[in-house]
Amino acid sequence: MPEFITVARVGEIPEGRGRTFAVGGQTVAVFRVNGDYFALDDFCPHMGASLGTGDVCDGAVVCDRHLWAFNLSDGVCREAPTMKAQTFDVRVQGDEIQVGVTTGAG
Ligand code: FES
């Protein structure tokens, strides 16, 4: 079971953009699109660039380094579908945006 950790409050992630957060020993990029939230590992599976700074377009984030697109919903790379960024569950509790991570603790 993932543990949900608060990373931000509603309104702190601009519509159509991402922000990165340290969560459970990882860096997670959280995006807001049409009011919904998505979370991907901030580490691009191609060559490790940050995904959190990429532009969001048509349900995907476009990595800044080589402009490959990764679906926000499942992390699959549109240019190379065998490549996939790790995804995380996101929920909103009250005004807190929370990311589900497995911490290994407990
Ligand atoms: S490092 Fe992200 S597409 Fe190459």
What does this structure look like?
With 106 residues, the chain is mostly beta strands. The protein is built from no helices and 10 strands. The strands form 3 sheets. Strands 2-3-4-8 form a 4-stranded antiparallel sheet, with no helix packed on it. Strand 2 and strand 3 (26-33) form a beta hairpin. The protein starts with a strand and ends in a 5-residue tail after the last strand. The mean pLDDT is 95. FE2/S2 (inorganic) cluster binds at residues 44, 46-47, 49, 63, 65-66, 68.
Key descriptive features of the protein:
three-stranded antiparallel β-sheet; binds FE2/S2 (inorganic) cluster; Rieske Iron-sulfur Protein; 106 residues; 0% helix; globular; mainly beta; single chain; four-stranded antiparallel β-sheet
SSE pattern, N- to C-terminal: EEEEEEEEEE
Order of strands, widest sheet: 2-3-4-8
Profile the largest sheet. Answer: 4 strands, antiparallel
Secondary structure category: mainly beta
The gyration radius over C-alpha positions equals: 13 Å
Number of helices: 0
Low-pLDDT runs: none
The count of domains is: 1
CATH superfamily: Rieske [2Fe-2S] iron-sulphur domain
CATH architecture: 3-layer Sandwich
Q: In total, how many beta strands?
A: 10
Gross morphology: globular
User: On the 0-100 scale, what is the average pLDDT?
Assistant: 95
Strand content: over 45%
CATH class label:
Mainly Beta
CATH-defined fold name: Rieske Iron-sulfur Protein
What is the share of helical residues? under 10%
Can you list the ligands bound to this structure? Answer: FE2/S2 (inorganic) cluster
Beginning-to-end CA distance, first to last residue: 11 Å
